[in-house]
Amino acid sequence: MSYKKGKIYIVGLGPGKREYMVPEALEAIEKSEVIIGYKTYIKLVEDLLKNKSVISSGMRKEIDRCKKALEYAKKGNIVSLISSGDAGVYGMAGIMLEILLKEDSNIEAQVIPGVTAANAAAACLGAPLMHDYAVISLSDLLTDWEVIEKRIECAAKGDFIICLYNPKSKGRQKQIEIARKIMLKYKDKDTPVGIVRNAKREGEQIILTTLDKMLENKIDMLTVVVIGNSQTFIKNGKMVTPRGYKV
Ligand code: SAH
């Protein structure tokens, strides 16, 4: 008797445009019978989903989505659980693996990387991440705000380039203001800042500014904010952090 063994692909879709999705992500979706994801991301790949079972759900349903993926894989289905950007960067990969490991499940899971927002935004801005950088999410939904403040403080003190994810939402307006104040303790007010909205997808907007003026610009949940280190400069519309080469 033969039976089909299920599998879960945890797929990063990249920032949005199809050209920025890795070929293996496309392949995984193609091989899958069941596709599970947040509805906005399902829309990004809708054209690839003909003849597949599609399960889309709203925000904050992450655990339910992973449980569904496991349920379908246990029935012998090949499942793709999709995230935007890289699935392992504030995405679905960790949650899915935690659930599988907790259950001691022998279902095979494979994480397929994607271009994360920081990398997409950096490419839009020039080359701001040429030196050590820290990625910090300002969302205090799952992380205590004191922890976030401490990490901003340490990254700023260490002269890291800082990429802020989830910088500001309707319900979270103050966090970015506090983050800026902490950074100003260690970083010059003229430190270059790049604000990229919808990087590498429809509606892309790129703003070059400074730490002093950054809050004068629109910042929301579709935005990544990149704050330079002490060496970062802006010239001819490009934000660059030197690596140290004598050019
Ligand atoms: N897994 C995703 C990140 C999810 S957290 C990734 O790797 O990119 C969601 C946050 O990511 C958003 O609030 C925003 O700060 C950022 N983001 C995701 N895609 C983006 C894009 N195309 N342009 C700008 N910011 C983006």
Automatic annotation (TrEMBL):
Gene3D superfamilies assigned: Cobalt-precorrin-4 Transmethylase, Domain 1 (3.40.1010.10), Methyltransferase, Cobalt-precorrin-4 Transmethylase, Domain 2 (3.30.950.10)
Entry GO MF terms: methyltransferase activity
Keywords from the named record: Cobalamin biosynthesis, Methyltransferase, S-adenosyl-L-methionine, Transferase
Record flagged with keyword Methyltransferase: yes
Domain of life: Bacteria
GO BP terms, alphabetized: cobalamin biosynthetic process; methylation
Pathway: Cofactor biosynthesis; adenosylcobalamin biosynthesis
Pfam families: TP_methylase
Domain Tetrapyrrole methylase: 7-213
PANTHER family referenced in this protein's UniProt entry, alphabetically: COBALT-FACTOR III C(17)-METHYLTRANSFERASE-RELATED
Name of the protein: Precorrin-3B C(17)-methyltransferase
